Amino acid sequence: QVQLVESGGGLVQPGGSLRLSCAVSGNIFAINAVAWYRQAPGKQRELVAAIRPDGSTNYKDSVKGRFTISRDNVQNTIYLQMNSLKPEDTAVYYCWCGGSWGQGTQVTVSS
């Protein structure tokens, strides 16, 4: 069974930065794509960024150039570096791997 534990969320002012981490237990990490999703109040969960085992990535258009997804295949951890944050980035962020979800971490961008 895969378990995912996110950390790193919080309150930040517009233009600020945060780095989210997701520790993945289990032995599927290295052979699976991993991803970050987010869900804002009243909206559907949406894909923010994904990274495959070969390191290739894709991003939601509105975060391109501001967010960077990365993975550490030794530590079984994925990261989401978020820069130039905007109020519209406010949401609960979830990591995903092999069909399993983390519990989510709140990101609030507000002055």
Task: Explain the layout of strands and helices.
Blueprint: E1 4-7, E2 10-12, E3 18-24, E4 34-39, E5 46-51, E6 57-59, E7 67-72, E8 77-82, E9 91-97, E10 100-101, E11 105-109
Parallel strand pairs: 2-11
Antiparallel strand pairs: 1-3, 3-8, 4-5, 4-9, 5-6, 7-8, 9-10, 9-11
Largest sheet: 7 strands, mixed
Strand proportion: over 45%
- Sheet/helix structural class: mainly beta
Which stretches of 5+ consecutive residues score pLDDT under 50?
A: none
User: What's the helical proportion of residues?
Assistant: under 10%
The separation of the N and C termini measures 40 Å
Q: Give the rounded overall mean pLDDT.
A: 93
The radius of gyration computed from the alpha-carbon positions, rounded to a whole number of angstroms, is 13 Å
The shape is: globular
Order of helices and strands: EEEEEEEEEEE
Beta-strand segment tally: 11
Count of separate DSSP helical elements: 0
